[in-house]
Amino acid sequence: xxxxxxxxxxxxxxxxxxxxxxxxxxxxxxxxxxxxxxxxxxxxxxxxxxxxxxxxxxxxxxxxxxxxxxxxxxxxxxxxxxxxxxxxxxxxxxxxxxxxxxxxxxxxxxxxxxxxxxxxxxxxxxxxxxxxxxxxxxxxxxxxxxxxxxxxxxxxxxxxxxxxxxxxxxxxxxxxxxxxxxxxxxxxxxxxxxxxxxxxxxxxxxxxxxxxxxxxxxxxxxxxxxxxxxxxxxxxxxxxxxxxxxxxxxxxxxxxxxxxxxxxxxxxxxxxxxxxxxxxxxxxxxxxxxxxxx
Length: 294
What we know:
This protein is mostly helical and 294 residues long. It has one domain. The protein contains 10 helices and 2 strands; from the N terminus they run αααααααββααα. The protein has a two-stranded antiparallel sheet with strand order 1-2. Helix 4 packs across helix 9 and helix 7 packs across helix 10. The longest helix has 37 residues. The radius of gyration is 19 Å and the shape is globular.
């Protein structure tokens, strides 16, 4: 009887936490849909900049910045970088691809380097584990993601493009969770995130391929081939895993569980957008290389 009572009392906090996650998740999804449906591009760019600014503040904590002035300076640097790219690439008008494409290419190159660091962690910590390097890493993670998201909005039906990218990341995450839970045996990156498995990655990829097929046939996409949309879905889903692993690696290095506490049951904003930070520039560059231009 006592054991049953103890078990019941232990289950209550878990249920409360799950309820928190569901309520917060629904609120975030509803807010995103409302903003995308109702607001023009400049306002959406501003809202996304606010989210990235909050994530930058959270990253400054992961980087070990303790002094208030240093964290404020880092936040100002991130905001300044976003503002500079907004005008540099003419995101308010017709994006200049000759300026934009090299930035997206460098962002994707950065994520390839990040993958190498993840694979060699904890040894790689000697390369990036200092405050200045962690600060630079945060800018490379967050600012190009914001740039890519705003660029997607410049497309015809750009709001749908943005939502499709977010759904792709969510599909990779959900597919990985269920397939990993059911079939997961081979660890993906045990020193970074022991709970992730290669079987989960495969499940996430299959989910995203299914979504790509569904989008191609239901929406009758004419500006990109079926092979092109599947390739973008596969690479974008893989990139989202790298983004998730990178944040896990930095949190493990910093000795924290969550990036923040602003979202009940979810942690910080950085915890919610980690997959998007890597997927957004990969998807944006993939669309350009596939010939689907704004």
